[in-house]
Amino acid sequence: MLIYMKKSETIFIFIAVLLLFSLSEVHSESTEKTKSADELYILCKNSYESGDLDKAGDYADMFLSLYTEDKHRAEVMLLKAFLQTSPDMAEDTYTSIIKDYPKSKFAAEAHFHLGQSYYLLDQYDKALDHYGEIIVSYTDSDSYWKARYWRCKVFVSQGDYKEAIYQLSSLKDSDPDDLNRDIILLSLANCYFITKDYEKAVENCRLIIDNMPDSHRLPHAYFLLSESLKKLDRSDEAKVIAEKLASDYPEFKDYQNLQNMEDNVKTTSIT
After folding, report:
1. Which of 264, 185, 248 is nearest to 221 (CA)?
2. pLDDT band at 158 (very low <50, low <70, confident <90, very high)
């Protein structure tokens, strides 16, 4: 009887040890899985930022296939959309982000990139829908000011200069930190020139030239200022500005060859 009890106790202890070992393995695997998600996320981001896009895509695919509930999933989906060569697949990914993570900052980014895609396809109403969604629902997102500016570009492309000027003027008064002021002023100058309000075109070009000496848009501002002064029959002033443009920016040729700015709205728009 004593021997039987000892054997039973031995078997019981052995089973208990196996159970504890199994539970320990489950916990270890769970911890390792979480760690692997973080590792894959970092590898994906680092590869993307270093320009190794093939590896970034591989890591993104691996992450998305393994971790359906991870905190980084929306961001990795966004990165995956950037990498997709098929516009339709990218659109599907952006749409999934908006659907699955509607309150995240990544949803705002997805809306913005969809807006950009539709803008480039000349599908302006759809572009306005996505920019508008950011402006209404994601006022604190990094895409907010960009969406407001690109909505103005849509109005320009549609020929609605009155609305473009109104919206750009609102942007100018807001003085957003996340958007260079020179891009707003030059866009306004373009719109005023096209609508033949040359005095206001001059005014906005002057604001760039007088206050933003480091702006890379200075050559554009000088050229547009010269053209506006010509329209105002201030040819002497126009000549001085044109000579300064040629002297300070000799590489700036394209705009000097334009014959009719009114027929080249997209050529002179700001990217």
Report:
1. 185
2. very high
